[in-house]
Design goal:
Structural class: alpha+beta
Radius of gyration: 22 Å
Helix content: 25-40%
Largest sheet: 3 strands, antiparallel
Order of helices and strands: EHHEHEEEEEHHHH
Amino acid sequence: MSRSYTGIKLKKNRVYSGADLQRIFDVSANTISNWVKAGLKDSDGKRPYLFRGGRVMEFLKARRDRTKTKLLFGEFKCGVCKSAVFPEVESLEVRPAKNGAPMGMGVCSECSGHIRKFVSEADLEVFALLADPNTTVDSLREGMRVDRGGICSSEEKLARPWYGINDRLLWTCRGLMPLL
């Protein structure tokens, strides 16, 4: 079962144990270990696992955002491989749907699954470029890419090691003091 955990806020600089996360998010120990396998970084690599609240929230936001793909013109979201792809050019077909709007249909270039979406005039222009044998899909993506101006993405933030040397000490002391 997939959950988004949008209503739960953790304190960014607070240290949480796996048991704390189980209680706060109402999940099992297996879920926490699955999160670790999926890329959630613990503080120091020792057991019991300790996590910074900010790191957990970034991880969960990245998981949520992974399914929300902003499509470029001409791209389809494949229901099988869940990625944003341009269709195979030979399979691309545009027909009117029941409501009269143009519906683009084709085959996913990654997994050969069937893809479809309502298309706009801008999509139709990209389809015309795809039909040109001198235009590559990579050149289309390159021309439509948004320049972030040197601002890093959350994936780049997650790639850097981020932990505090004193996280284990903070967690131990927190157990001795009453929480306010």
